[in-house]
Amino acid sequence: MNDSSDGDPPPRFAPAVLPDDLAAAVRRLGRANALVVGDAMLDRYVYGDVRRISPEAPVPVLTATREVVMPGGAGNVVRNLTALGAAVAFVSVVGDDQAGSDLTALIGGQPGVEPWLLVQGGRTTTVKTRYFAQGQQLLRADQEEDGPIQPKLAERLLRICGDAMLATSVTVLSDYGKGLFAGDVARRLIDAAKHAGRRVIVDPKGTDYSRYAGADIVTPNRRELALATGMSVDTEAEIVAAATALRVAHGFGAVMVTRSEDGITLLDDSGVHHFPAEAAEVFDVSGAGDTVVATLAAALASGCSVPLAARLANVAGGVVVGKVGTAIARESDLLAAISTQGGVLRKVVSREAAAEQVERWRRKGWRTGFTNGCFDLLHPGHVHLLDQARAACDRLVVGLNSDASVRRLKGATRPVQQEAARAAVLASLAAVDLVCIFDEDTPIELIRALRPELLVKGADYSVDRVVGGDLVQKWGGRVMLADLLPGHSTTATVARLRG
Predict the structure, then answer these.
(1) What integer pLDDT is reported at residue 20 of this predicted model?
(2) What's the domain range around 490?
(3) Fewest beta carbons less than 10 Å away: which of 93, 381, 394, 462?
(4) What is the per-residue pLDDT for 394?
(5) Out of 108-117, 250-259, 281-290, 362-371, which region has the weakest mean confidence (pLDDT)?
(6) CB 476, CB 454: distance < 8 Å
């Protein structure tokens, strides 16, 4: 273990991990399994319009039009782990209220999760409600209780965790200071993990880190490190000194300091590792710490070394701070982030990733347009339609029929180009912001997932014949029939080539 006393050699700076190593490690994350113990909460987002000031007080009146709920706190760590394909056992405590029931349903509905959400009578489930209008947050209202959980409930929680540790590879303690780790709960969980031969990652809270003594990795951010040690952390050298002091004081195996736009610093037995920020731009740091911890846990559980796991966590953190709102990083996001290929292919995303991106655009007040087709042998008529669509909205998503879908629609000899090639060509167009491949005969399920404000088809359709048009109009959007450029047809082109 490194020590900061006089006469010791300076910290050794380890070499960077190669991209090939990163890509192989990313692809192993889906094999991971982890136990997450922590403070769960419900995140609510209420969206609407503000068109007047209240006559009762000088405050805006929000006309709510839509509400989104998702797991927060330790629940967001679980959400990030499942996004990577990992299996998760989740142990937490909720109140016997509607928010607790909603949170239990949300957690239980995630694939790969074994939930143990214990109910404490009379306790208030933590809820954070954020109100938005025209893409701006107006207010956040918190409803919470941060007192210790009942002693009998704590004992039950410890027994469940002890059993779950035997079935998982790594344990995460996600402390949000809401009472779950009050008293000696954290210490007893760490002792149990050590006895079971499992590594423990702690996302800490507060200034007393003695209750996490013996943890394998703690992940304070820069501010938390300063508060816990009382030391300055303005420079890299000061961060290393403070992390060393913290590690020595409490017997931590490693300290990983998240530094927002400056990346991550890791101090472990192999030395000091500085990983610079991976994000091209920082839009929102909400939930980034949860993503970092989840990726670190998945990487360790899948057999990565601590430095390699930290590097992957840094990449994941860079992905989510480049998004708006509490976001997650999937395997495809991580592979795109470390890819040496151009940014064009990053526009080709899964249905889930597309829905999340559209939601982030919506929070910024941007209108999303949607159109779809086979786009086999892209021609000027396609480009003309896409340009019109993009001019009528802020962002444009193109739904692309998969190869199997095209064969069902066009016959066994189509498509001429495979879906990967068609998607890449579409993504290279400036008018296209995202491409999402769908396997169904129609894009109706994709439209339901995205909920675009604008639906675009060619003028050879009528509004009542546009698939999904009734849905888009129902939620306040509109259907646009774009002008067609005469004389261009993929079918005619293919016929000429074969003739």
Answers:
(1) 57
(2) 346-498
(3) 462
(4) 95
(5) 281-290
(6) no
